[in-house]
Amino acid sequence: MSIQEVKKAWQDYWTQSKHKELFLDEMSKTIISELLKNFRDVSGNRFLEAGCGRGMISAQMAELGADVHLLDISSDALQLARKYFAQKNVHASFTQGDIIDLPFRESTFDIVWNAGVMEHFEAGPQLKILQNIKNIIKPKGFFITFNPFDGAFFYKIGKRFAEKKGTWPYGPEYPVKSLQEQCRTAGFTVLKEYAICFKENLAYFSYVSKTLRSILKRIFKPFPDRFLIRVFGGYLLVTVAVKQD
Hints:
Number of helices: 10
Radius of gyration: 18 Å
Largest sheet: 7 strands, mixed
Number of domains: 1
């Protein structure tokens, strides 16, 4: 699928989703926790969410004092984000734009992050995105990205099943095994890379069988997430990198 088809798929997705209720789900709360774990004091830092969707996680960063900027190709996504920021009574700057051709000056942001974006692009465009992101980050600034993990056992089975049935709603996805080499080529030093979100991994098995997923959920309940992620993978791979210069 071409880049233009990827963009259209997500513009269509947000057009269809613009009336959905806005609330923080468990995965969003986990991502917030991981952002704070990696950056601790976000106050005063200039944040960009590059591919923001509803922007709800960034709104929590704004509540903690971050200078938040949001970018998305979809005007409907940005409309949802504006609505949520208004509900939370926090401020952000909203830009409709393309992650392939970022409309920001060099060395503008302390932290750029996104979730569920990089996996929609193949290797060539993905590297271009990383290089563009590197350019707009300040020296020693950070990039953190959360993407569906190639090692997420149940997610990959559910995704494959849904694609065959024609019920997959998220457009093309290329689960990420690692972004370390791509990040290094783009000019980042990768600090760490790890998987999170076992429950969301298992949730995708609903595309195969909701009943079987419920049975597995009960079987896995006594086991700690750390163990289950080690055996079956987490849904999201977290990549944390710093700009080299």
